[in-house]
Amino acid sequence: MNKRSVADLKTGERATIQSFTDETMSLKLLEMGCLPGAQVYLSAKAPLGDPICLNVAGYVLAMRRAEAATILIDND
Question: What are phi and psi of 41, to 5 degrees?
């Protein structure tokens, strides 16, 4: 099975956070509310695709695609 990450989402797509691929980055993401089991929604992308804008845990979070690529997801 091919794992997808938040970086693979299209604008308007929803998914559920499963796990992380980078231990150091995962601590930062957990502190920002990106918890396994949380639903994430890609609300916007910058014109060149980086950074992206996510809705997670009731707030809007902007992050670079490289950071988003460390968040593994399941589609809803």
Answer: -130, 125
Angle at 55 (CA atoms; ends 12, 3), nearest 5 degrees = 70
The model carries a pTM of 0.89
Q: By the 8 A CB rule, do 5 and 66 touch?
A: no
Q: How does 46-76 read in b/e, with b if 16+ C-beta sit within 10 Å?
A: eeeeebbebebeeeebebebebbbbbbbeee
What are 44's two structure tokens? 């916007």
For 8-32, the pLDDT digits (tens) are: 999 999 999 999 999 899 999 998 8
Partners of residue 48 on adjacent β-strands: none
- Its domain, for residue 56, covers 4-75
What domain count does the chain have? 1
CATH number (domain holding residue 67): 2.30.30.90
